[in-house]
Amino acid sequence: MFCNITDFGAKGDSITDNTEFIASAIKRCADSGGGTVYIPAGTYLTGPILLVSQLTIYIESGAKLVFKDDFSIYPPVKTRWSGYECYGFSPLLYGNSLTNVSILGAGRIDGHGGAWWEVHHLLRKGEEYDHPQTKKIAELNTFLTEPKNTNLVEWSSQFLRPPLLQMYDCNSVTLDGITLENSPFWNTHFVYCNNVTIHNVKFKNPSDTPNGDGLDIDSCSNVRVSDCHFDVGDDCLAFKSGINEDGRRIGKPTENVTVTNCTMQNGHGGIVMGSENSGGIRNIAVSNSMFIGTDRGIRIKTNRARGSYIRDILINNIYMDSVLCPLAINSFYRHGVDKNDYSLNDATVIKVTDKTPRIENIHVSNVTARNCRSAAGFIYGLPEMYVKDITLRHILFEMTTNPDEKGGEPDMVKEPLFMAGEGVYCKYVDGIEFHRVRIETRQGPALHLENVINVELDHLIMKSKPKYSYSYSQGCS
């Protein structure tokens, strides 16, 4: 079945509300057992779009879907929001428990997120905001504990902004060629999905978009991401698997994912794992990609509340330019830890429990990073659970020579550690190998080791003015 939305009354005049026309075309395909909904050139204003199984949405070059910013038309639905299973505003483009869904073409999907961002900024300022839908969301979420204690939101209003596109518990999904932009919250979010192909997609959000991630792969299996471009306001491509007790309860990892031939521009991180990793993250391969101007390049983050693991990660053939810190691995991420239950003192050993995270078997090779502003690398475990088995091979970390560069935090630990043009900092690590690694610092040693054991240095080269290339502190061997 082939359904052109204009045959159902749709008009690409940027004025007509096409919600019902698009829904009618989708229903016709569903009633026929499947088919293609075709969106020709034009600008189509619409409300939420609910996808069905055995469906292809084809958005022609020159076509743009623009979503209305009337909050009342986005009813509460079951979702996962920042790692918690809960109810929130319906994603603008939403599929739940579907099979064989494709969104193709060279057209654009615009979330028109400005009104959503404005309310978020009001809440951040401490102002009150209520809406009939937020009250419904709060009622549906009564099974949750107090939001401040769960880190669900930082304020009383349940204004849980939706992603632009969310596929929830779906199998065999393809995105190809489209541009997704201006999302209210995360741009594109896959949750509990299997067999996903994402090719030649552009993820775009303004640099100041709050929580404006590009692509979040959340407790998904067998995912392929290739030839995509990211230019966003938060993490470019993030791997997640639920948060704290809720994530451990579900226990579904993100696993078996390949990422290749992608470009990451701006954003807080190029490839990011965590901090919502409580279902586990494993078997990830990233290759042949570029990170330009991101805050961090490769970033792995977790903390004493998360538990589970991030392991068996292979990253190869990466070029970075003008990133803050090219490699950050951090078990002491300071956000989202309940201070009543967890010691935040980074020198205090606490009991290992199911809340203790594990990071291990991380292999990074053939990376060139130039004009870095903070530290060349930051690898920071826990005193009770060291980061284990890190391999760095054939790598160039070149720090900026700008004497006015003030640097910044290579990653967010309890006590902010600001670095500017310095080398690789390692603390609480068991097993790290440097093989043909060249570090060009602006100041300080190429490598600082503190409470690190089982170190292998093979052709670690430094080029800078400082007299000493290495710095060892207590507990190193």
Present the secondary structure layout.
Elements lengths: L1 E3 L8 E5 L1 H13 L3 E5 L2 E5 L2 E2 L4 E5 L3 E5 L8 E6 L2 E6 L3 E4 L2 E6 L3 E3 L3 H11 L7 H9 L6 H4 L14 E4 L2 E6 L2 E3 L6 E4 L2 E6 L2 E3 L10 E4 L2 E6 L2 E3 L3 E6 L3 H7 L3 E7 L2 E3 L3 E5 L7 E12 L3 E6 L7 E13 L3 E6 L27 E15 L2 E6 L6 E13 L22 E19 L6 E16 L7 E3 L5
What Rg do the Cα atoms give?
A: 23 Å
- What would you call the structural class? mainly beta
Number of strands: 35
The biggest sheet, with number of strands, parallel, antiparallel or mixed sense and barrel status, is:
33 strands, parallel
Q: What portion of the residues fall into strands of 2 or more residues?
A: over 45%
Task: Specify the overall morphology.
Answer: globular
What helical percentage do the residues reach?
Answer: under 10%
Mean pLDDT: 93
Instruction: Specify the number of helices.
Output: 5
Low-confidence parts lasting 5 or more residues at pLDDT below 50?
146-151
Termini Cα gap: 67 Å
Briefly say what this structure is.
This protein is mainly beta.
Provide a descriptive summary of the structure in words.
There is one protein chain. The protein is mainly beta and 477 residues long. 9% of the residues lie in helices and 47% in strands. The chain is built from five helices and 35 strands. It has a 33-stranded parallel sheet that branches. The chain has a two-stranded antiparallel ribbon with strand order 8-9. β8 and β9 (84-89) form a beta hairpin. It starts with a strand and ends in a 5-residue tail after the last strand. Residues 146-151 have low confidence and may be disordered.
